[in-house]
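User: I've been trying to design a sequence by hand for this structure and keep getting stuck. Would you show me what you'd pick, starting by listing the structure so we're on the same page?

Assistant: Good idea, let's start from the same input. This is the structure you sent:
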């Protein structure tokens, strides 16, 4: 059964059928500022190499609520974490992720580009991250260009099921993508796991588009340049939550706090920390 039983019936009904959302709704306020989830984008990407253990460990140390990860697949079928579909920017290699075997990907230096103190950081596996961080921090899983990797949805679903992480009452797991068809598939494979859609396109903020997303998604996650109070209200009225990206300034974080979003995805977890 589709997790979105009734579309547009209001937040109360959504919370009734989605205990994960209910947990968010119960978050306390801090002063006059709404408590939002602090999502460390690719780890604490401003301070450590993205999508590496060093970056994720730092995000945990900085008290992030979630780490955001990007999942792709090696030539020989291993799920790995890297943002770009090429390795050129964040490693000492050259070429498409999907053209490398797992052993070849693991041999790359994924840290030196950020600083010599990170030399030797490796591209992690999806399983590495699930094992190391579940129970310590939430994990926001982005399916990066899933159209390049047929069957990757089933692989991700199976890895979560093997660890009993497909049930949101156990651990904080969210899956998101810019590929909406992929997210429809993930909703079918993991009906109890919160699903998010990513966009920077204002055409996806119309009432009709939002209603369509609400039939399979729990989160609508737009770039902060298209966020308005009206959009936040519309998303909430459809029973979804809203998380916005990518914050790289305190001003952007403060803007999103003022808009009333539910999560802020930032390279700088300290900009979202209510204690600062």
């Amino acid at each position: 059964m589709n997790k979105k039983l009734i579309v547009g019936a209001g937040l109360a009904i959504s919370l009734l059928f989605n205990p994960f959302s209910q947990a968010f709704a119960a978050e306390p306020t801090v002063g006059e500022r709404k408590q939002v989830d602090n999502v460390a984008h690719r780890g604490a990407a401003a301070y450590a190499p993205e999508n590496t253990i060093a970056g994720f460990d730092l995000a945990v140390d900085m008290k992030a609520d979630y780490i955001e990860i990007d999942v792709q697949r090696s030539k020989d079928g291993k799920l790995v974490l890297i943002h770009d579909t090429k390795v050129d920017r964040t490693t000492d290699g050259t070429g498409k992720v999907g053209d490398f075997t797992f052993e070849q990907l693991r041999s790359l230096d994924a840290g030196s580009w950020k600083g010599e103190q990170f030399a030797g950081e490796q591209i992690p596996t999806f399983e590495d991250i699930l094992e190391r961080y579940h129970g310590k921090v939430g994990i926001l899983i982005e399916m990066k260009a899933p159209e390049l990797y047929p069957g990757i949805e089933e692989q991700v679903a199976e890895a979560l099921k093997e660890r009993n992480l497909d049930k949101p009452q156990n651990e904080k797991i969210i899956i998101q993508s810019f590929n909406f068809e992929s997210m429809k598939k993930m909703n079918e494979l993991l009906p109890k796991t919160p699903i998010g859609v990513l966009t920077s396109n204002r055409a996806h903020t119309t009432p009709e588009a939002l209603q369509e997303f609400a039939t399979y998604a729990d989160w609508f996650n737009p770039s902060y340049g298209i966020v308005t109070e009206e959009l936040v209200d519309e998303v909430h009225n459809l029973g979804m939550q809203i998380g916005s990206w990518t914050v790289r300034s305190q001003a952007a974080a403060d803007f999103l706090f003022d808009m009333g979003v539910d999560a802020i995805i930032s390279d700088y977890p300290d900009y979202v920390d209510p204690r600062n």
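That's my pick for every position. To get oriented when you compare it with your attempt: Confidence is low (pLDDT under 50) at residues 5-31. The first helix runs from residue 11 to 17.
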